[in-house]
Write a structure and sequence with these properties.
heterotrimer, A alpha/beta (about 800), B mainly alpha (about 290), C alpha+beta (about 210), B: about 290 residues, mainly alpha, 2 domains, C: about 210 residues, Alpha-Beta Plaits, three-stranded antiparallel β-sheet, 8 helices, 12 strands, binds iron/sulfur cluster
Chain lengths: ~800, ~290, ~210
């Protein structure tokens, strides 16, 4: 594979100044990619083309400029629009976008459809034609549908590759033309935060446009790492600008992240899963020292203290009751929180004072801390801190929570997937449950739409998704479930590479990259932009776009015309473009004109950033929130009525996690393992890109104190293990992570050796399938492990 | 031992062996004979040939070090500032002198001491060459090399390799004392090298991050080599003593000397090879750049 | 005499290495060869407090370096072939037609800039994106930085804008007069006291 085949060319390029530089040119045609082939009609065969960075659900949406030479992409640059002001900043791509040629022309690109020959999961396949492959698929779909019904068919969560047109959307649309499929709600990213934010605010639109950050004077980056995960292109840059405007930035995180190093004035190390303890202690300080916004709390909030409890619940535990320990006898003082959080009590007190007294201030919460055992609590805790300090609805403030933008939704896709005749929906994270015991699931496990499922999942069509065997909790368990052919009877994986999930497919369909088809992106969570993604080169080998695959399958299923509406990829892109023109971006130029201009991105400069909750702030009676009480619910009656106060308290509480350094499990597995986003990947995408691996090899990060006590030196190969699995990978000994915590960046492709030990460092060999109590979300970061030197 | 610098190890050691042979030959064998009128026997010319051979091996390996030897002639273009340019010129000059000297000795075997001035010049060129060689490594960007230990080490390597090799030749024409001197050199240089080791290491540990790492490299990454070299030094000393006490004024007893001299030579060569490998393992940029 | 220089704002550099890859893309560099490298400096003491919390005095920052096109370039002096040479505008370039791959410039450069190409047996190095500069564009690395931490410009202008600081711990004394101007990360003040060091050596070494 690879290396030997790569013909090396010397290309002499005359450079002004008399110098001749020879540089090795890595020639994709040597790998069998199709150079010189006609590019899509109407497109330049040579020259620079502006296009969106292939979207793999990183938090950014950036502009790329690709140089096409004879049908091959030979260089990738980024947004170079002049100006680059905070109102309309350049959408500069990160290392992943800039590395894309090494993915685009990777020797391992899937070339033809593949049909399984060995046992499921063994990874043995034979090549097949499209006609045969889609024939098999259509027949299996019809067979399973008639045997088990549409509720047995499932297109799982997957964001490995999507634009508004491609990815899983067309598959969802096609399923809806043949009777629908079991659906899911929430996500691996945001299950708790999207559920818990509205329990406080009645909405997920709690954010302000980012230009407003420049008005802030104090920013708490709480578990938030925009520099690495790119929570919106330019979010890191906006924080930089806010600092230039005088904001003090403090980062609270178990790791001294890229963001902590480059954006923060101070880094506070906190034990994972204890954020709500620190938040409670900060609130305690604010209460004791009367630093909270007394007026705002009185007029805008509910359940802060016993004077403002909902009717009939006056004697229940208010937030202040909880803080003072009126019911449990334990004041949530900084002294209480210090040994739990690992943050010195003076630090907690100081940060509480700083945050409460510097106005306006932002508490921006990241998403990692809500992918934990009781991930709902820090979300609510953060929102409550923002509320009681009066930072809601003002410039420079931040209400915390999921923080969607006012006027910014929807940002996933505007592609019409149609109506699903199957009403049943499961939480995203519970698909393995729906395989092994779907018919026994109830509302207690988050099933909605129906009381009971008629069938377990029998058919999986996994498009642009690596959750089957890579990104779900406890993948060793997933493997045991999936390899049992009597459970799921047919698995289709549609991807660009033979991922660990694709190895478990019965049928693998090769998909082209975004450079090889049409698409459209918007600014995702932030950013008022539309990015056009014209096709710039031909699909590699026999690969096809997700849309084309679905259309061809629709033909086999007899619904081609309804599915396609007579449109190809470009036609749909045009149609979606027009839809944006009519709804969200009224000044968007006409499609063909914009395409011709090769401008790539249409953006709306933001000079007067929108603020959430402004009207509510000014007039809480006239403009109440959508919460039951119309107020900011520090105490939630809805949660109270759920009757599970230990796991779903009505006020945000610190709850010791089910695996924690304070439980009995810590005696065998004393280290907390977290799986942060990695610069080298977007989830599991890009794990095979050499330029990225070179820049950021997969490692487990460990503090020198923990390394020394285990006799580990930097670079040693180590075994990270618990009862669920074992992974082996090199260690990076670094002071940039707190003692007692290790980080295994999530998303490395699972590569189990013959002994079952994963050799590539996939953290999900260690994580658990247990879900959070309220949101039914993944708690994959709640893991205890031990580490020792691996035998080499 | 794994090292990408084998060509340089062989190149530098071969050149230094060559120079060492010439130096020791000139000082300890020819010089005592200076006043006597005996013609030089053929055996002496073979010494020159060995020195020449070593130099040729050195030159060959210097090419192997290059990534692109085709351009090698260009390497003389920067004598003005480049010590490497100077080194290559030095190698060429020294090797040419040696070549001429050797050829002349073989062409005119009876010329005898009338050619000694050529040997003197070659030896002096060799001394200069070793200085230039050491200067290559004495650059601010490589603090572990940028020290007088570098030339010291190179010169000691030349002397001890030359002396112990010539001891093997059991030349005792003239004065048997010259043999004793060679044995003394064979013993004392390893003694000095051993004695300097702690000095060098304490210097390493005290002079900045990169040099501190140099110490780590020595003591951790290459621990086996480090201790092996110690043992080899000790062996060389022991064999040196054995050789010393095997030296007889009676030439018929020469065979007694052969075994210990051979062992000493082998130990010294092995020690120098490891020494040089460790030297290149210390190729560390300042502070990790 | 060098005309152009780089500026690196170490207080803003996140260590994301977009610059490194932008450069690799422009120059088609195989893994192991990095015209631009990002060095991660870190040091800290960690102590457990009486309360059972953790205290630290950590310092960490990043430094992105291509070639500094030094005003007194050690590499040029060292090169025996003059393959490594200064152009009239001060840019330091390697002429790969002349280079013999002796790697001596690599030893002489205090900044690890010359990158050896094992396959071709020659040295390669940041050429300041000379072609781009002559076209009036920014070097690829500079234009790539999401944090806008890199700048390119005339030495005089850079000094005027950012001052004449050419070093940050643990860079060596600027004896080669690097045309690299640095805004210091505030933590850099404490780095020496903490015995901080470059901790990502495996990510910056010129080898695969
Ligand atoms: S791109 Fe910018 S922020 Fe990223 S490593 Fe390079 S200089 Fe630093
Ligand atoms: S940084 Fe190194 S390679 Fe670049 S000019 Fe300076 S000494 Fe030469
Ligand atoms: S490697 Fe090439 S450029 Fe570097 S010193 Fe040698 S000849 Fe000069
Ligand atoms: S100036 Fe060009 S060659 Fe130099 S580091 Fe930047 S991108 Fe690379």
């Amino acid at each position: 594979m690879g290396k030997q085949n790569r013909r090396e060319f010397i290309r002499k390029s005359a450079v002004a100044g008399g110098m001749v530089i020879s540089s090795p040119v890595w020639f994709p045609d040597a790998l069998g990619f199709n150079p010189g082939q006609a590019v899509a009609p109407g497109l330049a065969k040579n020259g620079w083309i502006r296009v969106g960075c292939p979207a793999h659900n990183c938090g950014g949406r950036c502009l790329l400029k690709v140089l096409v030479d004879d049908g091959i992409i030979t260089r990738i640059e980024t947004d170079d629009r002049p100006g680059d002001t905070p109102a309309d900043p350049q959408l500069r791509a990160c290392i992943r976008g800039r590395s894309y040629r090494r993915r685009q022309y990777h020797p391992d690109r899937l070339k033809t459809p593949l049909v399984r020959t060995g046992k499921r999961g063994e990874g043995k396949f034979r090549e097949a034609t499209w006609d045969e492959a889609l024939g098999i698929m259509a027949a299996e779909m019809l067979r399973i549908r008639s045997k088990y019904g549409n509720e047995s068919m499932f297109v799982p969560y997957g964001t490995g590759s999507y634009s508004h047109l491609n990815g899983r959307w067309p598959a969802a649309r096609l399923m809806n033309f043949i009777g629908g499929a079991l659906d899911y709600y929430n996500s691996y990213s945001w299950a708790c935060i999207s559920k818990a934010t509205p329990t406080v605010y009645g909405t997920g639109i709690t954010g302000n446009q980012r230009q407003d950050w420049l008005n802030s004077k104090y920013i708490l980056m709480w578990g938030w790492n925009p520099a690495e995960m790119r929570d919106g292109t330019n979010s890191d840059y906006f924080i930089k600008k806010a600092r230039e405007n005088g904001a003090r930035v403090v980062c609270i995180d178990p790791r001294m992240t890229f963001s902590a190093v480059s954006l923060a004035d101070e880094w506070i190390s906190i034990r994972p899963g204890t954020d709500t303890a620190m938040m409670s202690a900060m609130a305690y300080v604010m209460v004791m020292e009367k630093l909270y916004d007394i007026d705002f709390v009185r007029t805008h909030c509910l359940g802060f203290d016993s004077t403002q409890m909902p009717k009939g619940l006056e004697n229940e535990e208010s937030y202040v009751d909880y803080l003072l320990g009126k019911f449990d006898g334990q004041p949530k003082s900084p002294k209480w929180a210090a040994p739990i959080t690992g943050v010195p009590s003076e630090t907690i007190t100081r940060i509480a004072r700083e945050y409460a007294t510097t106005k306006p201030a932002m508490l921006y919460q990241g998403y990692g801390m809500q992918r934990r055992a009781y991930g709902e609590q820090p979300v609510r805790g953060g929102c409550v801190l923002a509320a009681i300090t009066g930072n809601v609805g003002i410039h420079g403030g931040w209400a915390s929570g999921i923080a969607h933008q006012p006027g910014g939704e929807p940002f996933w896709s505007i592609f019409p997937t149609g109506t699903n005749n199957v009403q049943a929906r499961i939480p995203t994270f519970l698909w393995t449950e729906a395989i092994i015991r779907g018919t026994t699931l109830t509302a207690k496990e988050g099933l909605t739409g129906v009381e009971k499922l008629n069938s377990n999942i029998k058919f999986i069509w996994s498009v642009a998704s690596n959750i089957l065997m890579n990104q779900h909790g406890n993948i060793n368990r997933s493997g045991r479930i999936l390899e049992n052919e009597s459970l799921v009877e047919f698995i289709v994986v549609q991807d660009q590479f033979m991922t660990s999930s694709a190895k478990y497919a019965d049928l693998v369909l090769p998909v082209c990259t975004h450079f090889e088809t049409w698409g459209l992106e918007d600014g995702w969570k932030y950013g008022e932009e539309v990015i056009l993604m014209p096709q710039v080169v031909q699909p590699a080998f026999q690969s096809k776009s997700d849309y084309r695959i679905c259309a061809d399958l629709a033909a086999k299923l007899g619904v081609y015309d309804a599915f396609t509406e007579g449109l190809d990829e470009k036609g749909w892109t045009h149609k979606l473009w027009d839809q944006y023109r009519e709804t969200r971006f009224h000044n968007l130029p006409p499609f063909e004109k914009f395409l011709e201009s090769n401008q790539g991105v249409y953006s709306v400069p933001v000079f007067n950033p929108k603020i959430s909750f402004q009207e509510f702030r000014n007039d809480p009676i006239g403009h109440p929130l959508q919460t039951p009480s119309g107020k900011i619910e520090i105490f939630s009656e809805t949660l109270f009525q759920m009757g599970n106060p230990n796991e779903i308290p009505a006020v945000p509480k610190y709850i010791q996690e089910w695996e924690s350094p304070f439980g009995p499990e810590a005696s065998s597995y004393p280290l907390q393992a977290i799986g942060p986003h990695y610069m080298a990947r977007v989830h599991s995408t890009h794990d095979n890109v050499d330029w990225l691996k070179e820049a950021f090899p997969q490692r487990v990060f460990i503090n020198p104190i923990d390394a020394n006590s285990r006799d580990l030196t930097d670079g040693d190969r180590v075994l990270v293990f618990n009862e669920r699995g074992k992974i082996s990978l090199p260690c990076r000994v670094t002071p940039r992570i707190m003692p007692g915590v290790v980080a295994v960046p999530q998303g490395a492709w699972s590569m189990p050796g013959p002994d079952g030990i994963d050799t590539n460092g996939n953290i999900n060999a260690l994580s658990s399938e247990r879900w959070t109590p309220l949101a039914f979300g993944n708690a994959q970061h709640t893991i205890m492990v031990e580490i020792k030197k691996a035998r080499t | 031992m794994k090292s990408s610098e084998w060509p340089l190890v062989i190149f530098t050691l071969a050149m230094q062996l060559s120079v060492g042979i010439m130096l020791i030959y000139d000082l300890f064998i020819l010089f005592p004979l200076y006043r006597s009128r005996v013609a030089l026997p053929m055996k002496y010319h073979w010494i020159l040939l060995i020195a020449l051979l070593a130099a040729i091996i050195g030159v060959i390996f210097s090419f192997l070090h290059l990534g692109n030897p085709a351009n090698a002639p260009r390497s003389l273009s920067n004598i003005g500032t480049s010590w490497l340019s100077r080194e290559i010129s030095g190698v060429l000059i020294y090797s040419s002198l040696l070549l001429v000297t050797t050829i002349l000795h073989f062409v005119m075997p009876s010329a005898g001491r009338s050619l000694k001035w050529l040997i003197d010049i070659t030896a002096v060129a060799g001394i200069i060459l070793i200085f230039i060689m050491s200067r290559i490594y004495m650059i601010p960007a490589r603090p572990t090399w940028n020290t007088f230990f570098t030339p010291l080490g190179f010169y000691m390597a030349a002397i001890v390799m030359g002396a112990s090799l010539l001891l093997l030749f059991q030349i005792n024409q003239g004065s048997w004392a010259s043999q004793k001197s060679l044995a003394v050199l064979t013993i004392s240089i390893p003694v000095i090298q051993l004695a300097l080791l702690p000095v060098y290491m304490s210097w390493l540990s005290q002079s900045g991050i990169a040099s501190g790492q140099g110490l780590t490299i020595l003591l951790q990454n290459h621990m086996i080599a480090f201790y092996l070299r110690l043992i080899l030094y000790l062996l060389a000393i022991a064999f040196g003593f054995w050789a010393f006490f095997s030296i007889r004024s009676d030439t018929t007893q020469n065979r007694l000397l052969f075994t210990p001299a051979l062992l000493a030579w082998a130990a010294i060569l092995a020690a120098q090879i490891i020494d040089r490998l460790l030297f290149y393992a210390q190729n560390i940029s300042p502070d990790g750049f | 005499m060098s005309t152009f220089g780089f500026f690196c704002d170490t207080s803003a550099c996140s260590g994301c290495k977009t610059c490194q890859v932008a450069c690799k893309d422009k120059n088609n560099l195989e893994p192991g060869i990095r015209f631009r490298r990002v060095y991660e400096v870190a040091g800290a003491n960690w102590n457990k407090t009486e309360e059972g919390a953790w205290e630290h005095d950590i310092v960490a920052y990043n430094l992105s370096i291509g070639c500094n096109h030094c005003e007194d370039p050690a590499c040029v002096k060292a090169c025996p072939t003059k393959a490594m040479h200064a152009e009239s505008d001060g840019m330091i370039l390697v002429d790969s037609k002349i280079c013999i791959g002796c790697r001596y410039c690599e030893w002489a450069c205090p900044y690890g800039s010359p990158q050896y190409n094992e396959q071709k047996g020659i040295m390669q190095k940041c050429d300041f994106c000379r072609d781009y500069i002559l076209e009036g564009k920014q070097p690829a690395c500079v234009a790539s930085c999401p944090m806008r931490a890199l700048e390119f410009g005339q030495i005089g202008q850079l000094i005027e804008k950012h001052g004449d600081n050419r070093t940050i711990y643990p860079m060596p004394d600027p004896i080669t007069k690097p045309a690299l101007f640095i805004r210091k990360h505030p933590g850099a003040r404490f780095a020496r006291k903490l015995n901080a060091s470059i901790i990502n050596r495996e990510e910056v070494r010129n080898e695969k």
